[in-house]
């Protein structure tokens, strides 16, 4: 049975922190030789969290192992999740929620630019039985989440639903990448890769970066994390990520974890903002170029919303001789597992709630 490296480092957490194994670990590390040669960066490596699970990969798997275990431990009756249209986190909640036996899952969505993956994810959510709704505004989102919560609450039996947090919005969700940092340390100790000078990772709500940066410190690694922002700056910035790290430290200490960390500040966070573009999920020229170059040299698919922008930032960074000589790890956080099996039982778009029908019309923004 898989034992999280975090628990091996701090055995006292086994009884106090909920966890259920749903991934395939450790995820691979290997050099990107052809791409590194093209970029003049011979020390370019990749961590394949796109392969973190046999059914659905990416960074959400590590989060779900702690968050959904918490839902199980609390004996919650249903899951409520939310995100932008086609949210990968909502889909991960549906996929792994079903794996753990949750048969009631509600999802509330907000607007975002429409790409093919958005339509695919919505159909998969529906195929997995998610009850889907659409929020016209932030206020509408709050009201609909509250409605779903009350709908699944039964005062007579004490049953309550579980609101799945966005990555970064709870200490438990950050623990996935605290654990991942200890996994990386073990791979370095085994000689599978050199200790990176720098690690590039995609940053949305910040929990992945926060967990990784804290985990590297606790594991004794001096690698610096460079986050590449792909979400609106008001929701994704240095101050928020520092706060997420500090909150996770407090949580671990409450669990009796003997850790010593100074308080993190915004100045401790390295976040690149110039590759975001004009809006969340909007494509950029630099991102598209990075996707094409990576595909050409490594046969590695990236996407326009997340990893393409992160690779574009990495390519820009290594364009100088000073940075090109460093050992750099690209932490791949997008799913690469074929999702066609989930689509075999997917409903037709017209069977979705009427509010979603317009998103299946042809769009000039399709990728």
From TrEMBL:
Specify one Pfam family.
PALP
The prosthetic group or cofactor this protein requires is: pyridoxal 5'-phosphate
Every Tryptophan synthase beta chain-like PALP domain range: 21-333
**N6-(pyridoxal phosphate)lysine, modified sites:** 60
Record: active site: 87
Gene3D superfamilies on file: 3.40.50.1100
Ordered alphabetically, the record's keywords are: Pyridoxal phosphate
Q: Which GO terms describe its molecular function?
A: D-cysteine desulfhydrase activity
Which branch of life, at top level?
A: Bacteria
Give the family, as the similarity comment puts it: Belongs to the ACC deaminase/D-cysteine desulfhydrase family.
According to UniProt, the name of this protein is Pyridoxal-phosphate dependent enzyme
Instruction: Please give the organism.
Output: Candidatus Abyssobacteria bacterium SURF_17
């Amino acid at each position: 049975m898989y034992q999280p490296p975090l628990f091996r480092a701090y055995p006292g957490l086994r009884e106090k922190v909920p966890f259920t194994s749903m991934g395939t670990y450790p995820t691979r590390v290997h050099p990107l030789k052809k791409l590194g040669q093209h970029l003049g960066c011979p020390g370019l490596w990749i961590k394949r969290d796109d392969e973190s699970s046999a059914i659905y990969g990416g960074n959400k798997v590590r989060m779900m192992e702690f968050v959904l275990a918490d839902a199980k431990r609390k004996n919650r009756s249903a899951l409520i999740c939310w995100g932008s249209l086609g949210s990968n986190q909502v889909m991960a909640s549906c996929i792994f929620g079903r794996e753990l036996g949750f048969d009631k899952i509600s999802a509330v969505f907000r607007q975002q630019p429409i790409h093919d993956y958005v339509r695919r994810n919505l159909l998969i959510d529906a195929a997995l039985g998610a009850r889907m709704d659409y929020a016209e505004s932030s206020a509408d989102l709050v009201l609909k989440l509250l409605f779903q919560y009350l709908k699944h609450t039964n005062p007579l039996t004490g049953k309550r639903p579980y609101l799945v947090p966005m990555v970064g919005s709870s200490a438990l969700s950050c623990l996935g990448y605290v654990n991942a940092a200890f996994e990386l340390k073990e791979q370095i100790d085994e000689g599978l890769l050199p200790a990176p000078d720098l690690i590039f990772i995609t940053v949305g709500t910040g929990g992945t970066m926060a967990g990784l940066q804290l985990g590297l410190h606790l594991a004794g690694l001096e690698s610096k994390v460079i986050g590449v922002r792909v979400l609106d700056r008001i929701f994704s910035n240095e101050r928020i990520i520092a706060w997420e790290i500090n909150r996770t430290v407090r949580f671990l200490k409450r669990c009796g974890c003997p850790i010593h960390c100074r308080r993190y500040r915004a100045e401790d966070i390295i976040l690149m903002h110039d590759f975001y573009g004009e809006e969340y999920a909007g494509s950029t020229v630099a991102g598209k170029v990075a996707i094409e170059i990576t595909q050409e040299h490594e046969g590695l698919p990236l996407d326009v919303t997340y990893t393409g922008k992160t690779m574009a930032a990495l390519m820009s960074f290594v364009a100088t001789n000073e940075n090109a000589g460093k050992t750099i790890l690209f932490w791949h956080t997008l799913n690469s597992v074929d999702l066609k099996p989930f689509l075999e039982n997917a409903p037709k778009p017209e069977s979705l709630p009427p509010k979603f029908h317009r998103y299946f019309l042809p769009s000039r923004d399709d990728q």
